Amino acid sequence: MSDFEEIYKLYFKDVFLYLRALCRDETVSEEIAQETFVKALNNIDSFDGKKDIRAWLFTIAKNTYRTYCRRKNLPLDEVPQIAVSDVILTEHIENEETAMRVHKLLHELNEPYKEVFNLRVFGELSFEKIGVIFGKTAGWARVTYFRAKNMIIDGLEKGD
Asked: pTM value?
């Protein structure tokens, strides 16, 4: 098995989940993930190994998705910024039992963390809109969401 086949096996699911979080369409995510790995294979010589290969693949995936949006005349300003930790959380939620644990942990969060997380993940609102709801800035909403997400990930890792 080649090194690239190993990379594909190790990271395809992460790239797919990342893209699904970006576009929320399973078919499009699958297509762009495949295209991402074709581009990665064609440009593997440009990977210098200084960064995590998953971050490099996510960058290719994000740029490939942006190209897709331009081809389909979709507004680029609506392309969300998804962090690697969002993909990890999404992967946790894929499992029904773990999804219940996430909901339990979310229920136990204090406000405003609980509501900001709900508005962002389940309401799919932008940080700007969440900030407006709370009379705060988009930066405040971003930080509050990030903290809530980390509390949930910590709870999952501790087995709460």
From this structure: 0.52
